[in-house]
Amino acid sequence: MTLRFTADCVVLDIEGTTSATGFVVDVLYPYSRKRFGTLLTERADEPEVRRAVGQVRDLLGEPGADAARVEEALNSWLDEDRKATPLKTLQGIVWSEGFASGELVSHFYEDVVPALRRWHADGVRLHVYSSGSVAAQRSWFGHSAEGDLLPLVDGLYDTGNAGPKRSPASYRTITAAIGTAPDRALFLSDHPAELDAARAAGWLTAGVRRPGEPYHALGGGHPTTGSFADVEITTGRSSP
Questions:
Q1: Beta partners for 147?
Q2: Domain boundary at 68, 101, 134, which?
Q3: Is the N or the C terminus of the chain less surrounded, counting Cβ atoms within 10 Å?
């Protein structure tokens, strides 16, 4: 069934929506796990690393935690799939380097990139909102099997610059930054709680249900689709 929306912008979740969660868990998580130790010991003085390490210590309640303890905590949070901001920041650093070197190439479901290009050509602004850091998002969209997709994207948002994904306030922050009325923003996500938060903020919502993804069987009262090819978006503006 085709879903039709009138919207000025689309905001995209990544895991389970544009891309397979399995790729993140099976490829990216082990990649970062192998490199955390070196990052924490050899680059501890870099401002972004130092700030993230301080945040880890704050979350642990251990201001004196050394690099080994911080690495232990990061790996534990990986096992829990915890959406901790400093974990995502440090993952973003190592993933960015992996993508830049060519060791990593991001995954997108086959229906996604054609839809993104179609919506972009039709004047729909595209944004990303993921628990992964902005740096990780930039690398992800910049190093796909179909080349650099960043020219299609107008803005990137994470839990640092927007807030928690299950909080309606985060979605209000994004529409304020974008300069779009809430009822002109469409959020595509596989996660019912995120969709609920976006709807509570006045957004349009659509659940993406892909076989094999963790939230495939969950409902939530949102319009749902199994493919971006079945989502039609118009801006409601007349062509010049």
A1: 144
A2: 101
A3: C
In this structure, the answer to whether residues 83 and 120 fall within a common structural domain is: no
Whether 223 is covered by a domain: the verdict is yes
Residue 91 belongs to some domain of the structure: yes
Picking from 58, 74, 101, the residue at the C-terminal end of a domain is: 101
The answer on 97 and 141 residing in a single domain is no
The answer to whether residues 155 and 110 touch, using CB atoms and an 8 Å cutoff, is: no
Q: What is the pLDDT along the chain (240 residues), one digit of tens a residue?
A: 899 999 999 999 999 999 999 998 899 999 999 999 999 999 999 999 999 999 999 999 999 999 999 999 999 999 998 889 999 999 989 998 999 999 999 999 999 999 999 999 999 999 999 988 898 899 999 999 999 999 999 999 999 999 999 999 999 999 999 999 999 999 999 999 999 999 999 999 999 999 999 888 766 789 999 999 999 999 975 443
> 0.90 exceeded by the pTM?
no
- The strand order across the sheet containing 153-157 reads 153-157, 125-129, 9-12, 185-189, 204-208, 224-225
